[in-house]
Design brief:
Strand content: 15-25%
Number of helices: 14
Radius of gyration: 25 Å
Shape: globular
């Protein structure tokens, strides 16, 4: 194989002189979910599989390529095989990474500089990755994903899932910046000569290490500059100051990530054996933001939690919603869930995900829609891992005698019912109602300078909290609302209020409410991650 690498090195100087050449821009949005895209690669050799295998072994930058994305042509790109467990030597249908701006830093397709094509390994349905990203995006930033057909040197290789890279453009779009450190849990190539004191096989579990170099054996730094000290500080706070971890971690986003993993039985993640396939991005507020990645094994395709052997179908369906809550080797779960309020919030997230996507059958309808889009390109794929019959059966039946990939509805119909009736999830949370923000009284001359928010909750609430911010880029602050002695309330109903000082007469307040009773908690609005309540002080002063 070494000869392929040497031949390639001889070709590189000639290929590097290629200039950018772009055809008419494509009118199809790159991540359009209603159509199937098309990516065409022209590589400098017919033996490109062996060359890319060799480049992977030698950790080379990539094979020069011409790329045509939905009709738009780009020269000076580079291609390489990607993936860990999803990669296999000698295969044409391997996951691909395509760097459009390899030779020209300004070159991009609709703002995207890198394409990540997933081969949907161990997913006969072909929809796991897209379905997970679509569901996750309702509750936290998640990559966009869409189907695309891949051609290499005019040969049809198959239908792939084009997944948005977690990179600079992703961070800018979702967090308003891209200069913070970004870590990927899990490393493809472990550094040599790691300190002997490092804990072994902990991957991205976020266990604390005294030696900073130990983290480099478990995380990849995907950004320029430092960040290792900050990552160590996150693990230190998880270990020793879990009550203060919100200073360096978006705790609610972490709880959403864990809840999504649990409901969908996504064990090739932090929640599984190896604690991998997620990113941590340090945002402009110096807090780490978790992001899911590599989701082709979601919905029970990977079956190991790190305790014992692989789970069977029934165990997957009945996976404990509080998985790892008492596991000291999974501090992101166990340390966060030690806090009673975090635990209630996490269970509220599980309940909401289940009700909005699975108990109502929405996931099954969407999975059928997605499969319907790719019936023809899947059938035409001569390199496909699974047969067309497997593809058709995979929504409802287990496929494979060895790997035994559960059917989506076979898994999730019973799992959703299991979660609905689980004792931790049958406790009724308070329902928040009658939310009001006090405005300036009629004929009142003096303008108000604060937001006075009131609300009620039933089912014997203990407390109500308001989470608020004055800018989309700020983290939410939280205050416990005062209980109001409002006469005439029904049994079990309480009224609450709070006053938040405005920074200026132009202030705009984003906020949402959380009420808790002895057993559970709930939010209003339910879709607060995307659409919190919003009120302008100027409107209150009209």
């Amino acid at each position: 194989m070494k000869k392929y690498f040497l031949v390639l090195l001889a070709l590189l100087p000639m290929l590097a002189t290629a200039q950018q050449s772009v055809s008419k821009p494509s009118s199809r949005p790159l991540f359009d979910k209603k159509t199937v895209g098309e990516v065409r690669l022209t590589l400098p050799t017919s033996d490109w599989v062996n060359v890319l295998d060799s480049m992977r072994i030698y950790n080379a930058d990539g094979l020069p390529a011409t790329v045509v994305v939905d009709g738009s042509r780009y020269e000076g790109a580079k291609v390489r095989f990607r993936g860990d467990k999803s990669y296999a030597k000698g295969l044409k249908r391997n996951p691909m990474s395509i760097k459009l701006n390899a030779d020209n830093p300004a070159q991009n397709h609709q703002g995207v500089v890198s394409l990540k094509l997933s081969a949907a390994v161990r997913d006969p349905s072909m929809v796991r990755e897209m379905l997970f990203h679509e569901i996750a995006s309702k509750y936290m930033p998640a990559s966009q994903a869409a189907f695309t057909k891949l051609y290499i040197n005019e040969e049809y290789i198959g239908v792939f899932v084009n997944v948005e890279s977690v990179d600079k453009s992703f961070f800018e779009a979702n967090y308003g910046g891209s200069k913070g450190a970004a870590f990927k849990a899990g490393v493809d190539n472990k550094p040599e000569n790691l300190p002997p004191s490092c804990k072994q096989n902990i991957f991205g579990s976020l266990e604390y290490e005294d030696n900073l170099d130990c983290y480099k054996g478990n995380f990849e730094l995907d950004s320029k500059g430092g960040g290792w000290t900050e990552l160590q500080e996150l693990t230190r706070k998880l270990a020793n100051e879990p009550g203060n971890v919100g200073q360096v971690l978006d705790v609610d986003r972490a709880l959403w990530m864990l809840a999504l993993n649990n409901v969908t039985v996504n064990l090739n993640s932090y929640s599984g054996n190896y604690s991998v396939n997620y990113y941590l991005y340090r945002d402009g507020n110096n807090r780490f933001q978790p992001v899911h990645w590599d989701l082709n094994l979601a919905f029970g395709s990977y079956k190991n939690t790190g305790s014992g052997s692989d789970l069977n179908l029934r165990q997957l369906q009945n996976l404990d919603p509080l998985l790892h809550a008492d596991n000291p080797y999974k501090p992101l779960a166990s340390q966060l869930l030690k806090d009673p309020l975090n635990r209630k919030i996490y269970l509220s997230h599980i309940r909401q995900i289940n009700e909005e996507n699975f108990l109502n059958g929405a996931y099954e309808k969407r999975a059928k829609e997605l499969q319907g889009m790719i019936v023809v390109p899947f059938n035409d794929d001569k390199y496909k891992t699974y047969s067309y019959d497997d593809f058709q059966r995979s929504l409802n039946e287990t496929v494979g005698k060895k790997s035994k990939i559960p059917g989506l509805t076979e898994l999730m119909s019973k799992r959703s019912r299991f979660l609905k009736t689980h004792p931790e999830l049958t406790k009724l949370p308070p329902a928040i109602s009658e939310v009001m923000v006090k405005g300036r009284a009629k004929f009142e001359n003096q303008k108000i300078n604060s937001f006075h928010v009131t609300a009620r909750a039933d089912k014997y609430p203990l407390r109500m909290y308001i989470y608020y911010r004055f800018s989309d880029q700020d983290p939410y602050s939280v205050m416990i609302m005062s209980e109001d002695n409002t006469p005439g309330l029904a049994a079990g109903v309480k009224a609450f209020g709070v006053q938040i000082e405005a920074k200026s007469q132009d202030a705009v307040l984003d906020y949402y409410l959380l009420a808790e009773n002895v057993g559970a908690a709930d939010f209003l609005p339910a879709n607060y991650p995307k659409q919190p309540f919003k009120i302008k002080l100027s409107e209150l002063n009209k």
